[in-house]
Amino acid sequence: MPHCVIECPADLKNQVDFDYLVRAIHDTTDASGLFAMGDVKSRLILSDHYHVSGKRDPYVHVVCHILSGRTEKQRKQLGDDLALTLCELLPAVEMISVEVREIEKQIYSNRKSLMKTSR
Q1: How many domains does the chain have?
Q2: What is the pLDDT of residues 57-87, one digit of tens each?
Q3: How many other C-beta atoms can be found within 10 angstroms of the C-beta atom of residue 29?
Q4: CATH assignment at residue 35
Q5: Each residue of 88-114: pLDDT tens digit?
Q6: Confidence (pLDDT) at 118
Q7: How far is the C-alpha of 6 from the C-alpha of 28, rounded, in Å?
Q8: Most CB within 10 Å of its CB: which of 25, 40, 41, 98?
């Protein structure tokens, strides 16, 4: 945790290197200081079929899923930092948005947590 999921149109490749985009979001999240080294996971999901306000305008939307335990101020700062990174990287893209979603630790499962409980 966290998982940063970037969504954008596939044809945005004409404006940004996708590897650089993923790295920028990853590094911004890592630099927040909210997570242990090596915990950040980032990925990109490309859309071929989309409309933004009825048109095929470019957009970037990031959802950052984090485990509970951070303050509202910390979550807001992370969202603002990610949005600023996107705005600086993609000045021609008007539709930029970021969501920081909190997942309750008690209901989150992954391989690591399952291995701890099965011992």
Answers
A1: 1
A2: 999 999 999 999 999 999 999 999 999 999 9
A3: 25
A4: 3.30.429.10
A5: 999 999 999 999 999 998 888 888 778
A6: 65
A7: 13
A8: 25
Cα–Cα distance for residue pair 115/119, rounded to 1 Å: 7
CA 34 to chain centre: 14
Rounded to 10 deg, the angle between the 72-89 and 18-31 helix axes is 150
Higher pLDDT, 41 or 53: 41
* Host domain of residue 34: 3-117
Backbone angles phi, psi at 47, to 5 degrees: -110, 135
Q: With the CA atoms of 24, 25, 28 and 32 taken in that order, what torsion angle do they form, in degrees rounded to the nearest 10? A: -160
Q: Which residue has the tokens 């509970």?
A: 68
SS3 sequence, 66-84? Answer: EECCCCHHHHHHHHHHHHH
| Residues 37, 7: Cα–Cα separation, whole Å | 24
Strands 3-9 and 59-67: antiparallel
